[in-house]
Amino acid sequence: MHPLATSKRARGVLMALAAMTSISLAVGCGSGIGIIHSLGGGFSKSSLKGQYVISQTGIGVNQAGNGVNAFSETIVFTSDGSGNITVTVDDFDQVGGPFVLSSSETGTYSIASDGTGALSFGGSNYAITMIDDSHFYIIEKDFFATASGFGEKQDTTAFTAAPSGAFVFKAHEIDTSSRVGGISITAGVVAGTEDLLSLGSLSSNMPITTSAAMTVPDANGRGTFTLTDGSSFHYYVVNSGKFYIMSNSASGSLEIGQAETQVAPAGGFSPATLPGSYVFGSSGDTSVGGAAGIHSAGVFTTDGNGNITAGAVDYVQDATVNSNLAVSGGTYTLASSGRGTVNLTLAGGTISPQIFWTLNGTRAYFLADSTLAVEDGTFSQQQGAPFTALTSQAAFVMDGFDVAFKDRVGLFKPTNGGFSWNQSANSFDATTGIGNPSTLPTSGTYQVSSNGRVTVTVNGITSSLVFYLSSANTGFMVQEDADIGGAFTQQASQ
Asked: HSE on the CB side for 22, CA within 13 Å?
């Protein structure tokens, strides 16, 4: 729910309706109106059943109704498998005013056979695409706000105590900071080490501890904790090995992130833990501010002995495109704690070194050590190379900026020599405070390189999209005629 008071929500909608005659559909920017027919599959309303938590960020009209500001949001809802939902948590942080849901509210949803669907509650509307019964991508499709993120089914049996064990985390505060680190949690007490990048300044190997321990989660999987640096957070249990975090709404911070269990090999991590090819995707904000930003994706190959031998990188920063930069070498480190660094040597360009914390040797969270951006993301070990084709239906989510703030969710289905592409999108103009929700069924073509780099044309949207495959139908993407990027994941068979 976008938490404007009733009159303010109406104001945002009226602003949009009054201006709709002056809004072009701008199909070349990824908008449009069409009837989307299902691409097939075995999903249904019953696929979305249970308790779910959503983590998302966006931009929209603020609480006072007098401006437009960025926001972070975490939502918990229960779905009955028949088209009805009950929302029990809506924690919303925005410059211009936070919001916390005071009582539960009801809504509705629909799911098509291909996993695309819609949620509606509290006067707000969302488009989702399911990956499987427990995971989905989501965007907000309102005239007064746009957002993008992801949702996961909660294991309610994990709500009996605070998380426990070793975890790796990453978090991002819009236009301000990125952090990654490794922690241990014992009886709710957090202790560990983090790398914190405030725009232009990196603090490495900083101790991180709690001044107020993690409380036992409530029936929504929601608890609280406070760090000794004074920052205060809510946390939201997904399962015993994962939880989301978001700044307490009273703090004025927009920080949001997640943590997952770390599984170390006997004797700890080392450079030998990391042999093979790894695909990464990341995004962030730059020192230019406003609508400017960065989206990156790429692949690099390690030798298990501290050296990087090959790869390729694409990134767009503040509208400057760096396409298919060859990795000619580089180095990496990996300490026994799971903290490491990656420094890529690129032909024809540069990219900031990465500081990462590995979860298990095959996945890691990282931030880019940059004086010009706060950028963070993930990388994972590549499986299935050499690649020759996209082979299965996949869900995707994208965010960024072209002529307006842009969020997209949907799926693509490979066909003979190309693919079908169905998307729901929202294009939000921060100057007018008006969104332009749309749907667009279209098609496209692609060419696959053996290293997993795929050049993609989506008709009516872009001829400059690049995929990097971590497996045959899963990976990260960068749109190079705009500052837009995202991720895609192969859907489970139903």
From this structure: 8
